[in-house]
Write a structure and sequence with these properties.
This protein starts with a strand and ends with a strand. The protein has one domain. The protein is mainly beta and 131 residues long. It contains one helix and 13 strands, in the order E-E-E-E-E-E-E-H-E-E-E-E-E-E.
């Protein structure tokens, strides 16, 4: 069993993604973005802005997730969690994903590289982090 840390979100928490090229997108009851050895998992509604258009998406409504597939191939340039728990992913082509915290569930998580795991706790006030 690994010991994790609970980190309050008072300012932006930058999330390092060493291999920034998007290698694949997976859609099931979640939406998953793989960047080398790092996987970003989205489990609740999120907003994708691409080419100036905003798309409100939900991983459980697979029929509407087509705009998320346009991110492949792509390159992540910045990832951070803001106070309130919103995860933001900025891409080199100007696209942006914003995943707000959910009041009742873990809205998003970042797995990797290695054994690192970052989870947005319900409500978004804290992150749970295992290194």
């Amino acid at each position: 069993m690994r010991q994790g840390a609970r980190v309050p979100l008072h300012g932006d928490h930058v999330i390092s993604v060493p291999e920034a090229d998007l290698t694949f997108v997976c859609v099931n009851h979640q939406t998953r973005f793989q960047f080398g050895a790092t996987e970003v998992i989205i489990e609740s509604g999120f907003r994708l802005t691409v080419e100036g258009r905003e798309h409100d998406l939900d991983p459980t409504d697979r029929a509407l997730l087509g705009p998320a597939l346009t991110l492949y191939p792509g390159t992540l340039v910045h990832a951070f969690a803001a106070p309130g728990g919103t995860l933001t992913l900025d891409f080199a082509n100007g696209a942006r994903i914003e995943v707000p915290a959910d009041q009742n569930y873990e809205a998003w998580q970042v797995n990797g590289p290695g054994s690192r795991l970052i989870v947005c706790e319900p409500g978004g006030d804290n992150l749970s982090i295992w290194e």
